[in-house]
């Protein structure tokens, strides 16, 4: 990668990363009303409602997220912080998949650790956890993030204007995750395009897996080919190809699909409040709180879900075994029982745990990577682009999307 080289094909980035485009249509990418007032009213009515989040939200359509809803199951949605947190804490009652997972059977997210529970989940997650600790974020910055950010900034700095969502935010996570996998820059967007069909991801990573089995290097695929896991009977084995592919599919999807939207959300919140942006520019220790507050106030993925494993009376509602419980973490993050003036974006709030990275055993594996990407990326913009501001003559950015939320174009001027 040279100083200005890693620039991705902008038209293709726009196509693959436009929330309102065909790629995101199934999960409500085009949804543009602000759902938070409605969610607040629902949260005030009751902690848990029967129905999916989209069925309960006026103006929403019959969208899907992570394969849900399943037509033959009753669905419920938790809206308060206490109810959502209780779902996350009890991973036996609220399981990540309806059926036991056989990771060696086939490759895909449904065979990955995201779908596992209990001891099996702990065994598989432990294989990659050391590369995702707060300390390991430095490895990610050194290996991929800093170089990517520097090259992107070097490209846009002389232009005096940019569209940050595509020119900047979208590129960083996809180049970061493919970089630590050892996938060449030229194939980075192919990985993103392949997310719609996991077999295409396997086509890209299979030759790399074979090569690292021969000669491991300092990358994530090498971690996976060298990992050993114990099965149910305690027999230890090296990960099979399908097991490695499932890890790859999960990590490439989670790594490239989330942080760009959250970075755009954070930048939009700051650019629309020039006095807050100036304060962060002046005192860089405020950047982390600004990122955390944007996560609380506008999480990019406002809902995840769990399968209910036995009949339960839960926060005032009887929920039968086999039901699906939606965790409306976006609504939980604005629960007035926990935060004062919860609808305000206030970077000076006292720090409290939020649910934007989930909770319990499946809490986001990549949260320290995501934070490192956002701190490095936004920090570099503040360091290199003086007088960064929204372009007053362009359409202002707005938040759109339902199950995946983010900003529309973020047109800026600087210099
Ligand atoms: C701002 C960016 C991100 C957000 C908001 C986010 C959010 C989340 C959430 C809410 C979960 C829990 C899902 C559930 O409860 O079922 C999760 C899990 C996960 N995330 Fe992230 N994520 C982000 C970035 C990343 C990145 C950069 C990576 C990888 C490099 C990553 C990898 C994962 C993985 C592997 C899991 C599954 C963990 C498990 O099942 O134990 N995430 N993420």
UniProtKB/TrEMBL annotation:
The keyword Iron-sulfur does not apply. It holds the Pfam family p450. Keywords: Heme, Iron, Metal-binding, Monooxygenase, Oxidoreductase. The keyword Cell division does not apply. Gene3D superfamilies: Cytochrome P450. GO terms for molecular function: heme binding; iron ion binding; monooxygenase activity; oxidoreductase activity, acting on paired donors, with incorporation or reduction of molecular oxygen. Belongs to the cytochrome P450 family. This is Cytochrome P450. The lineage of its organism: Bacteria, Bacillati, Actinomycetota, Actinomycetes, Geodermatophilales.
């Amino acid at each position: 990668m040279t100083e200005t080289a890693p620039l991705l094909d902008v038209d293709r980035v726009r196509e693959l990363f436009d929330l309102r485009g065909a790629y995101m249509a199934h999960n409500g990418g085009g949804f543009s009303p602000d759902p938070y007032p409605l969610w607040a009213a629902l949260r005030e009515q009751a902690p848990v409602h029967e129905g999916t989040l989209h069925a309960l939200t006026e103006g929403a359509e019959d969208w899907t997220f992570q394969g849900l809803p399943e037509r033959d199951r009753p669905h419920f949605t938790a809206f308060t912080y206490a109810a959502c947190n209780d779902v996350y804490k009890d991973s036996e009652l609220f399981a990540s998949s309806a059926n036991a997972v056989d990771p060696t059977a086939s490759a895909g997210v449904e065979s990955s650790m995201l779908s596992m529970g209990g001891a099996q989940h702990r065994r598989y997650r432990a294989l990659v956890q050391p590369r995702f600790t707060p300390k390991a974020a430095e490895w990610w910055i050194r290996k991929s993030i800093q170089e990517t950010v520097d090259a992107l900034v070097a490209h846009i700095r002389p232009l005096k204007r940019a569209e940050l969502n595509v020119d900047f935010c979208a590129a960083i996570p996809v180049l970061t995750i493919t970089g630590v996998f050892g996938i060449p820059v030229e194939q980075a967007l192919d990985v993103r395009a392949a997310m719609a069909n996991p077999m295409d991801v396997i086509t890209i990573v299979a030759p790399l897996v074979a090569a690292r089995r021969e000669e491991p290097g300092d990358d994530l695929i090498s971690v996976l080919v060298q990992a050993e896991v114990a099965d149910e009977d305690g027999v230890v084995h090296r990960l099979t190809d399908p097991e490695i592919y499932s890890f790859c599919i999960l990590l490439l999807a989670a790594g490239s699909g989330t942080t760009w939207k959250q970075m755009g959300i954070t930048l939009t919140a700051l650019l629309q409040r020039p006095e807050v942006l100036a304060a962060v520019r002046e005192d860089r220790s405020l950047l982390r709180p600004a990122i955390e507050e944007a996560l609380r106030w506008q999480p990019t993925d406002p809902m995840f879900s769990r399968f209910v494993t036995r009949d339960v009376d839960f926060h005032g509602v009887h929920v039968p075994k086999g039901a699906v419980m939606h965790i409306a973490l976006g609504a939980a993050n604005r629960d007035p029982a926990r935060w004062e003036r919860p609808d305000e974006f206030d970077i000076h709030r006292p720090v409290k745990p939020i649910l934007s990275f989930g909770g319990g055993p499946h809490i986001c594996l990549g949260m320290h990577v995501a934070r490192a990407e956002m701190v490095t990326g936004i920090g570099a913009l503040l360091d290199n682009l003086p007088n960064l501001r929204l372009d007053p003559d362009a359409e202002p950015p707005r938040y759109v999307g339902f199950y995946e939320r983010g900003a529309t174009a973020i047109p800026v001027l600087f210099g």
